[in-house]
Amino acid sequence: MKQILLLLENKINSRLLLELLQQNYQAYQYQDESSLNLPFDLCIVDGLALKRWQRQVQVRRKSEEPILLPFLLLTSRPDVGMVTDDLRHTVDEVIITPIEKMELLLRVEVLLRTRHFSAELANSNRELEEFAHIASHDLQEPLRQIKSYTDLLVKRYRNRLDQRADQYINYITDSVVRMQKLIIDLLTYSQTSRGELILETTDLGAILNQVLVDLSSLIEESQAVIRAEFLPTLKANPSQMGQLLQNLITNAIKFRNRQSPLIQIKVIRNDQFWTISVQDNGIGIEPQYAERIFLIFQRLHTREEYPGTGIGLAICKKIVQHHGGRIWLESEPGQGSIFFFTMPAT
Question: How far is Cα of residue 121 from the mean position of the Cα atoms in its chain?
Fold first, then answer.
C-alpha cells in the first residue's frame, strides 16, 4: 500500500486529510523532524511547514534521486502570495484550497503513479548501464585479439600482397580503432553514475589547466584560442569535472568552420548555483536539435564529416545531472554554440 506523509502545521486540515486518505492509502502525520526519514511515496505539506522544513525536504528529495519523491503543497487562496518561487521549486504540485475531495484524490493518485513510473525508468536505466558496462568489458578482449593479429598482418605482409589486400587490412585496422574508442566511451558513459559520487573541494581552474595540457596537440593543430575567466572552487568529483571540460572543449574544436576556433569560458554566480558557459565560433546547429544532441549515439553529421562516437555530450549530461546541475545549449547555424551547465554552489 502506498504511504503518504502529512506534513501540515494546520492540524484541522491534517486530521481531515488523514481521514480521507486512510481509506485507500497508508497515511500518517509527522511527529517530528525524524518523520521525514521514514519511508513514504508522497508528502503533502502546507506553506508554514514547508518554510519550516524546506532544507530537510530538499535533502530528502535529493536522497531519492533519480527516483522522483513527490511533494504536494496545499495552500489557501489568501496565503498563496506567501508561497515564494523558491518554495514552489521545492515541490512538484501546488493545490489551492478549498478543493473537491475527488479532485484532490485524483491529483494524489497522479503523483503516486508518476513516482511509480519514475522508479521503473530508473530501474530500466540501471539495467541498461549494467548491460553496457558488462558488454563493453566482454567486447574488449576479442577486439584486442583482432587488433593484435591485424597489426601482425600489417607488419609482416604490407606491400607483399596486392593493393586491394592492403586496402582491406587498412579497413580492418580503422574499424578496430573506431570500435575501441566506442567501447571506451561506452564504459565511461556507464560508469559516470555507477556507485557513490565522491565529492572533493575541486579547483576548476586547475582542472581546466590540466585539460588544456592534455589537449595541447589538438589545440596547436587547430590553432584554437581559449580564453577563460577565473573558475570557481566547488564541491565536485575532480575526474568527472575534467571529463566534462575536456568533452566540451574537444566538441568546440571539432565542430569548427574555416576560422581558427575561439573558445570562451565564462562564469556567473547566483545564490545556489554556478553557471559556467563554453562558447565557440563554430558551425552551430539548428535550435530544434538542442536537446537531441545530448542523447547517446545521436549524431547530426556523418562520421566522414566529423568523426566521433556520438557519446561525448551524453557523458557531459550524465556528469552534470549526477552533480545536481543541468546542461543546455544555445545555438544558431553558422553562429557558433554556447553550452551552459550549472553546478551547486554549496
Answer: 15
pLDDT digits (tens, 9 = 90+) for 64-121: 888 889 999 888 765 555 656 666 667 888 888 888 888 989 999 999 999 999 988 8
Going by their DSSP bridges, the two strands 42-46 and 71-76 should be labelled as parallel
Q: Supply the CATH number for residue 66's domain.
A: 3.40.50.2300
Separation CA 9–CA 193 (nearest Å): 38
Show the domain range for 130. Answer: 124-191
pTM of the model: 0.60
Of 147, 162, 191, the one marking the end of a domain is 191
**CA–CA dist 52, 93 (Å, integer):** 18
Last residue of a domain, one of 157, 191, 225: 191
List the strands of the sheet with 26-29, edge to edge. 26-29, 3-7, 42-46, 71-76, 93-97
Q: What are phi and psi of 203, to 5 degrees?
A: -85, 105
Please check whether residues 170 and 212 belong to one and the same domain. Answer: no
- For the chain, give the mean pLDDT: 84
DSSP per-residue string spanning 296-340: TT--SS-TTTS-S-S-HHHHHHHHHHHTT--EEEEE-TTS-EEEE
Locate 321 and state its grid cell: 545531472
